[in-house]
Amino acid sequence: MEPKCYDRLKGQPAIVTGANSGIGKAVAVQLAKEGAKVVVNYIGNEEATKEVISEIRDFGGEVMAYKADVSKEEEVVAMFRKTIETYGTVHILVNNAGIQKDAAIDEMSLEEWQKVINVNLTGQFLCSREAIKEFKRRGIDEHISNSAGKIICMSSVHDVIPWAGHANYAASKGGIMLLMKSMAQEVAPEKIRINSIGPGAIKTPINESAWSTTEAEQKLLKLIPQNRVGEPADIARAAVWLVSDESEYVNGVTLYVDGGMTLYPGFATGG
Ligand code: NAD
């Protein structure tokens, strides 16, 4: 069900990284529907980016696109500068950009390790640092939100579930968990809220091979007690709540949106 309330984020500039695909796209659209002024960060695929921009403009949403690699310090700093020039400030950051480069641990190259850590973990550090600087500079604007700023770190069920063959990815997500909690602890006194969302299996390009055939989907469903693969909209609705004042007292947690994947489904029949 689409939420009926469409102004929970009115007037709040929001940067969503990796927002021209999958989860990021759904989050960007949903934030805009709630009145946020959205920066659609992307790294490639101009056509897909134009589609997100038109989708948001079609319902009267405010949006701009900004190309930047989240793992490059100078590009991240420039993205925040441009956002603040355009919209005056930033209230929301959704650290969503992420990649996988899978390999058996004894075959994983240093490049495959570093690329995933650089984008998934260092990218979240760089964007969070720039966001927090701006949140602290501005402080609370009570006409806009009860918090000085909100960050969502897009993590994964793999911040707690080990994942053979994906050690770089799982290490990046485990790292995000303690980055998120440490930052949240540090800046909570400034009324800045930082939380993660841990998606389970969501139908997006990153994991297409895991759900695109019936056989693959049936195998995947064995890991999901609710017996349904998630959709990007499942994550987008949780993201809106987590950056709205409805979750004002929620800080430093991972909200798993996973149909029960973290419930150890292998033990459902006694283990
Ligand atoms: P996706 O591949 O559709 O989207 C990833 C986005 O990140 C793309 O827009 C891509 O261009 C962008 N990106 C990659 N490198 C970038 C960089 N250096 N700078 C800026 N943008 C960059 O995949 P998705 O499933 O939508 O993934 C979004 C997030 O959700 C990721 O952090 C992923 O780890 C996480 N996640 C996804 C699932 C799932 O089942 N789909 C599950 C758990 C966590």
Structure description:
The protein has 271 residues and is α/β, with parallel strands linked by helices. 41% of the residues lie in helices and 14% in strands. The protein contains seven helices and seven strands; from the N terminus they run E-H-E-H-E-H-E-H-E-H-E-H-H-E. The protein has a seven-stranded parallel β-sheet, sandwiched between helices. Strand 4 (92-95), helix 4 (110-138) and strand 5 form a beta-alpha-beta unit. 44% of the residues are buried. The chain binds nicotinamide-adenine-dinucleotide (NAD). Nicotinamide-adenine-dinucleotide binds at residues 17-18, 20-24, 41-44, 69-71, 96-99, 119, 154, 156, 199, 201-202, 204-207. The site of nicotinamide-adenine-dinucleotide has 28 residues, from helix 1 and strand 2.
| Major sheet strand order | 3-2-1-4-5-6-7
- N-C termini distance: 35 Å
Q: CATH superfamily membership, which one?
A: NAD(P)-binding Rossmann-like Domain
**What ligand species are in this complex?**
nicotinamide-adenine-dinucleotide
Low-confidence residue ranges: none
CATH class category label:
Alpha Beta
Shape descriptor reads: globular
Measured by DSSP, the beta-strand proportion falls in 5-15%
Taken in chain order, the helices and strands follow as EHEHEHEHEHEHHE
Quickly count the domains: 1
CATH topology: Rossmann fold
Helical residue percent? 40-55%
